[in-house]
């Protein structure tokens, strides 16, 4: 058992490799070895985007659950996704056909949400965990209704908007948005590594704030930094792939159940498992029905029963 | 004797309160003392402990740790000098006892640095002295309250502190664990550790402390050896209850008996 645990990263990497290979060979027409010819133009970006989205969402979920000491928190609790979704729908409202502009709109609104949540949660000059969660939930409500409003005024068919909002990996790269994707990728790597460097502080934050302070961990300072960094990461993912649900909630739970709560393992392992599972979910999303399904439908159909199981047995 | 911790003419008021809790309050704890702080609920004991750790800042006056102003230290530096055992301990996830004690090495470790052999030795020593080594692989949430309190003490010891602050650390323990815990503290004090022990348990404090401060509403009523503090007129004045007093059969120290 102990040995299996120590080799955890190996199993998770193996899973990820299997998921990547499967992503290349399974298409809407089922398994086809000749399908390997399409990959580099269509499937490779898709696989990269899947690793990026699933990995980052799960990593942020793990970090936020640790920071807020709450196993029910997910990457969207702090409100960023709702702002990004509103940005997407505004972008579509202006009838733009270039994906780059929609992406930029989405990211700008996500940044706006971070600033909004930050200032709402600042009470008497300090950020508290409760303040953050409440501000996040309130902001989500605000932007969800604004998104609805934008969709009502939009003359576009709703399906397109729903696809963009409910999660997809189907961006087609053009020379114009390729550069955006590269910047997002580099930024995401840097921010993820920076979040990981908080691992010991996140462990210690599982105890009372003052006890943590007596061990040299400044909870208030760390709360602010982690809020901003993880919100930026979520903003990157959501503006590129929409709000993919459940991955960031469930994956850290699975890792914690198997490998324990230590963030030194929890954070990187969550990245690996999240990336792998999202790729598998994407394979299902584009093969199970005649048309491609929004990713959140798949992640929720698998995620909800698992979450109920957790709720009944583990919490 | 050198001063371990000194509060000089401090005044402190909570932002939400109108009345001043401490007014030009001074206190000096010497190196090697086993210093007790007692007083009724709301007398300012916990506030005092927070001031001593820099969690709260006094509006006036200064606090010195080994003759250096407390503002000169950052949190990590302070964590190498002061260990803290709170009354209640909460753990959001199922860490093992060993993990929790290893957190005590945090102030000595860089951000991405893994614990070295020396850190693990320090953890094992802390587990040994608190008699928690048998628990080391158990989950911190699945041991008894008395055991958990010893683990938190071990965590504070792994910090290699020079001063140990205890905030009603024995309040929730049964007498078996109270006695064990008090014996460990006594042993640590004999090894030279300065201990500041905040308690509601006048009898236990009277037995283990070398000096005690009796607080009433932010004012120091008396600060002296236990046999001078635990006198019925002082206790009655502060607690508004007239207790019986008897001497401890073994040590001869005064013990309070409730007047029921």
TrEMBL record, chain A:
InterPro entries: ABC_BtuC-like, ABC_transptr_permease_BtuC. It is a multi-pass membrane protein. One of its GO terms (molecular function) is transmembrane transporter activity. The chain crosses the membrane at residues 6-26, 47-64, 76-94, 101-120, 132-153, 165-196, 226-254, 266-285, 291-311. The keyword Cytoplasm does not apply. Signal peptide: none annotated. Pfam families: FecCD (PF01032). It comes from the Bacteria. GO terms for cellular component: plasma membrane. Keywords: Cell membrane, Membrane, Transmembrane, Transmembrane helix, Transport. It is found in: Cell membrane. The keyword Cell membrane applies. SUPFAM superfamilies: ABC transporter involved in vitamin B12 uptake, BtuC. Belongs to the binding-protein-dependent transport system permease family. FecCD subfamily. This is Iron ABC transporter permease.
UniProtKB/TrEMBL annotation, chain B:
It comes from the Bacteria. The keyword tRNA processing does not apply. SUPFAM superfamilies: P-loop containing nucleoside triphosphate hydrolases. It comes from candidate division WOR-3 bacterium. Keywords: ATP-binding, Nucleotide-binding, Translocase, Transport. One of its GO terms (molecular function) is ATP binding. Coiled coil: none annotated. PANTHER family: HEMIN IMPORT ATP-BINDING PROTEIN HMUV. PROSITE patterns: ABC_TRANSPORTER_1 (PS00211), ABC_TRANSPORTER_2 (PS50893). InterPro entries: AAA+_ATPase (IPR003593), ABC_transporter-like_ATP-bd (IPR003439), ABC_transporter-like_CS (IPR017871), P-loop_NTPase (IPR027417). This is ABC transporter ATP-binding protein. SMART domains: AAA (SM00382). Pfam families: ABC_tran (PF00005). Residues 5-242 form the ABC transporter domain.
